[in-house]
Design a protein that fits this description.
By secondary structure, the chain is an alpha/beta fold. It has one domain: Rossmann fold (3-Layer(aba) Sandwich), CATH 3.40.50.150. The protein has helices at 4-14, 20-37, 42-45, 47-58, 74-82, 95-104, 156-159, 177-182, 185-191, 201-206, 211-221, 229-233, 241-246, and strands at residues 65-68, 89-91, 109-111, 114-115, 120-127, 146-154, 168-171, 194-198, 224-228, 256-261. Strands 3-2-1-7-8-10-9 form a 7-stranded mixed beta sheet, sandwiched between helices. A 3-stranded mixed beta sheet has the order 4-6-5. Helix 5 links the parallel strand 1 (65-68) and strand 2. The termini are far apart.
Amino acid sequence: MIDYRRMVNLQMMIMRTPMEGPARRLMGIAHLVRSWRKPEFRDVYLEMPRIDRFLDRTVRGSFNCIDIGCHVGVKLSQFVRLAPGGRHMGFEPIPHLAQRLQKKFPEVDVRPVALGDTPGETTFTIDKQLPGRSSLRSLGGSDKDHEEIKVRCERLDSLVPEGYHAHLLNLAVIGSALSVLRGATGVLQRDRPILIFFWTRLGAEAFGASSADLYNFLTEQHPYSLYLIKDLLDGGAPLDLARFDESLNYPCKATHFIAVADR
């Protein structure tokens, strides 16, 4: 059985060392092998390499990027490398991870808080076996594998410094993407940043949200178009609500999506 806690420690140690590049390439190969073994999940397994391609193509040297749910700092490391002149922010509610990120990325404004639309103290559930599945809601599983902690939750709008312009938001949060975006309406209206977000039916249901809720928030309340990552890379059309919702059906075609403002 894989010890995911040790894996997290190893990932954190490798980050920002000469080993990071080779480790990324190995992960890319691993994703490709999985896509061959389970072709029905091909697009899901290839999401991470495709996101990397999108970031390499899109992020400029002075972009300001915000990483929400930093975990071990994989995306933070990319943002710092691709946009060394940017002012980057990161948010990670698990205290020991936030502390390590602050030391690993001293030039990044890393905050040990969760983001949402309702400020205050709240419960955060840490999945000790799969830390990447930690969330503001329990997603099932054995109680012995979970640890609940109290964390501070804030709206992104209240934490962005005056005069700061956000070019890209990465939402690596389980189920709470809509809540995070509702707490960032000022940033969305003012800056119209690119959005990369994680969204699954199980996670959304844990927060009482639906695909239509998120889709309508972004396309009707804000001037955004939603894309499958592969479609955006290939110059394809944006998703309508039916295709967005259908892409979540088993075997799902996507768990990550990109939203781009209509300018």
